[in-house]
Write a structure and sequence with these properties.
Layout: E1 3-8, E2 12-19, E3 26-30, H1 44-49, E4 53-57, E5 66-67, H2 78-91, E6 97-101, H3 103-115, E7 120-126, H4 143-146, H5 150-154, H6 158-166, H7 168-179, H8 186-193, H9 202-212, H10 224-230, E8 240-245, H11 256-259, E9 267-272, H12 279-282, H13 284-295
Parallel strand pairs: 3-4, 3-6, 6-7, 7-8, 8-9
Antiparallel strand pairs: 1-2, 2-4, 2-5
Length: 297
Amino acid sequence: MTDIQHVRTQTLDIACENHGPDSGEPVILLHGFPYSPRAYDEIAPTLAAKGYRVIVPYLRGYGPTRFNSPDTLRSGQQAALAQDLLDLMDALGIEQATLCGYDWGGRAACIVAALFPERVRGLVTGDGYNLQNIPHSTQPLAPETEHRLWYQYYFHTPRGIEGLRQNRREFCELLWRLWSPTWTQNAERYPLSAPAFDNPDFVDVVIHSYRHRFMYAPGDPALEWMEQLLTRQPAISVPTISLCGADDGVGPAPAEDEDIDHFTGPYERRVLADVGHNIPEEAPQQTLTALLDLLQR
């Protein structure tokens, strides 16, 4: 059975779904926006059955996870997500773990792997190198790419903030359909994750995330040191497998030659046919295989 544990860090009370023995080798599975731990429903139990200690946290702004103080900035910046992961590992006494994440969760995992490689045994990342290059965020992209980012530009406006606040479930369901256009289980699976978006901090964290990455909102001063390191776009040296959905509605998979320079350790890129943005939920077997390939090396 899944065990729900609340882990208190300096900033958050993080709700985690735990599987497997506490003595097992740790694996941390991280969801993205707008998703939830349900993305790993077909992965976590199998890993646990093999003896691994599997931890699937709700990110800040999702599900039962809560901020400790009403005065804390409801930041969604990339450094906040990475710091949450580090704080979680520290609170659980985990020196090193294998990480798997996509979208926001993939960004947190990639940052920790890049800046703290000694904490990461292996990395499964959705869509390769996920670190944001914020100083270059104002440079326009090709029109075909720009139009896919409409939701981000919408969130830059008061209308977009209120739109998400009033219609969060309908809005996120639309993103599921657009981002996983060939997946036949959207309607069946979405209701399982939607309750996680009822978190009282969900809107504030999401809006801050999409405004900060374009330099339209200040970040948390306590995390500025990490953001400065990330402007250098540090390489990832840990063993990595990148999973890319061939039908990802957010955008096509990055070309391998665009990504490879960011990885200095063992690296493999796998493009998954008929898979969109919600990689572990759409392709649980391929995701599990990637994790086991790293864990059993």
